[in-house]
Amino acid sequence: MSNARVSVIVSLFALAAACGPGDDASGGTEAEASSSSGGGSTGDVTDGGSSGTSSGTSSGGETGGQSFPDPADAPTYDGDAFKGMQIYDVRGDVWLDEAALLAALDPARLVFVGEQHETPPIHELQRWVLERQLARHPEVALGMEHFQRDEQGVIDDYLAGTIDEATFEAQSQPWTGYATYWKQLVEVMRAAGRPVLALNVPDEALDSVYSKFPTRPLDVVNAWTDAAPYADDVAPRPIGPWDATYQGYFEGSYDYNSHGKDWGLTYEEALDYFTDLALLRDDTMGFWIAQHLAMTEDRMVVVAGDWHVQTGLATPESAAKFGDVERRLITTATHATLAAVKAAGTAERPVADYILVYEPG
284 with 199: CB under 8 angstroms? Predict the structure, then answer.
């Protein structure tokens, strides 16, 4: 293999590990992560701030919670890595208390919580949502972008107690930084005796795709037979095609100078190539989400990068292809980035249903 081809494939690995490209649309930043008190905290999350009873509007019944037009009147919540968190209802343009948020999530079997990868306050906020969903609905399962689908058996063995923690972490191939950022979520589910679903495309399947470069990824995967080694770990074939709306969403964060310009691909060829990769990942995650919901009576919380979650155009729409259920989308922002995060959506397709607005703790 030529040095140029090796360079391309190495770059493809790097992009695939980071995809989606717009995960930095949330409020988290590396600076915020480093200034926080750390991820993977095990202390109880505590509520703080005002009680917000005088200026709030009831959201329905004793347990329906309250909404607040003015954030100054809304309650705040503190954790180990975040402080002053408030809950913003995007469509209603109001602020909610915890009870109102949980009541608003009740009709949905599927709740997505987006993330800026490796940002401690955001991962603790994901845990904040997960713990409250479990307390309210014990039938909750957790779906994670951070595990490859072919490792599901290892995850099941760990949750069942048949392998220890060290064996699990050695064999399950979680993302780098698992212990710091995402372990807290798995341990919540293990303590509750509830399932964790590996959603992502196996690395080995991507290796097979990259080895055929510059053949389009979906052309490679759709040519697999049922006997192909990882055919059962990705979405049912044929996958695609994507449409102009999906590619337009992807293109908003695509960097041709870093991914494609020096690889002998035109801009259009490179954009098509990486849109294929994005859809392969979204449809695979969406398929396994829909499969679990179809085969069980469970509810599901899914944690994934903001690019996959925000606006619902990526993984949520992929899940709907295979089994449409009512869903809610949650993302995050700091107070300083709230306007920019909101601007990532449109009137027809807001960035999320709810934004957890926080400051690093």
Answer: yes
